[in-house]
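Researcher: Go.
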Amino acid sequence: MTAGSDVVHPRKDSRVISDWQPEDPAYWAATGHRVATRNLVISVPALLLAFAVWMLFSAVSISLPKIGFTFSTDQLFWLVALPSLSGATLRIFYSFIIPLVGGRRWTALSTASLLLPTLWLGYAVQNPNTPYWVFVAIAILCGFGGANFSSSMSNISFFYPKQRQGFALGMNAGLGNVGVSVAQLVIPLVISVGVFGALGGAPQPAADGGAPLFLQNAGFIWVPAIALVAVAAWFGMNDLTTSRSSFAEQAVIFRRKHNWLMCWLYIGTFGSYIGFSAGFPMLVKSQFPAVNPMTYAFIGPLLGALMRSVGGSMADRWGGARLTFWVFALMIAAVAGVLHFLPQDGQGGNFYGFLVSFMALFVLSGIGNGTTFRMIPVIFRTLHERLSASADAAGKKVAAHQASIESAAVVGFSGAIGAYGGFFIPKSYGTSISLTGGPSLALYGFIAFYVTCLAVTWWWYYRRGAETPC
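Model: Structure:
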């Protein structure tokens, strides 16, 4: 670097960057864009694998009785639900880890941690005497996959300038979310054949006399990719020293009103997406018994995942609050459509109208995932610009840095809170059906919740004169 140059380039062989300036146009054009793109390209498959592992038991649980495990329906339901509970809870801690450890180190280590549930599951299903508590432990470990989302999104947010974060976060999360559909597509295929030959173990005979299953492949199939991506993350990604901060610096978000408001909105978007993904097959089976839900189960999660990056890009152009407002308005209409096409007292109903309405919910929640995340950095940048309005240049620079720290922490923390939807939406269906005989009560509850999200978006972020327009 020449004397007096304003652009600081990291060494090409350096995995630690000590002077990261994405908001500097010259730096971004010369160095930043290339480095950020490389980190994003590795982050996406890491997050896709994380989501696939998170959803393992959604496909594995229904096959356990087929190979002789005598778990009750309630026990199988808990195996499906536990990854969402553990993943959402772990996300709270993962939200703050990147500034403490570094994005490269943590992405590599957290990806490698996915080997624990996948390898253990592969061996556990081969022994018909494996006790239930072992599967409970594996299901809890699958929550590592769900937790990785918060650290991954926090990490990527540091690499991109504010005006490009909607696209970057949308791509990372949107393509990462495809892992839900990938798991639901891949697992039914690989458990029917001996993918790894003798190395993978013998098939398990079917309890009903049907074709034997290689259920161990539901875990083993992900192992090579996990190992490869973990190595790629260790050697190909970067740690940013400029993103380093203490927990105390990040914990200030708990005193920020907008942290809690965005958590509420993200429950409405991502919580809906992951909850609908988990609950859709069960809802179809209970309301339209003649329909095979697995024929359609992967479509909605795939649409929602792909639309997330679209939502981020649209928000970059038209504003996150405007799009988020209309997302919730249309989600209310889509839930009304689902209610209209449901059978009443077991009679009538229109499956294809129900399907179209539900696919609209997936698309809208996917768009909303991108638009809400685009709002967060704008909100916290605006907040700190106001707080530092009377400060000198050095004070404004410190404020801008703190804004990036807080927005990254909110991105991770709101992702943690939103993930609880993966448990509560399916559970609300079950509660509604047990109390009233149908899911309508739960769906009316969703409408009421979306109305509150609409009101929050309009009042604080969208209306003329809003406190923090974004």
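Model: The mean pLDDT is 87.
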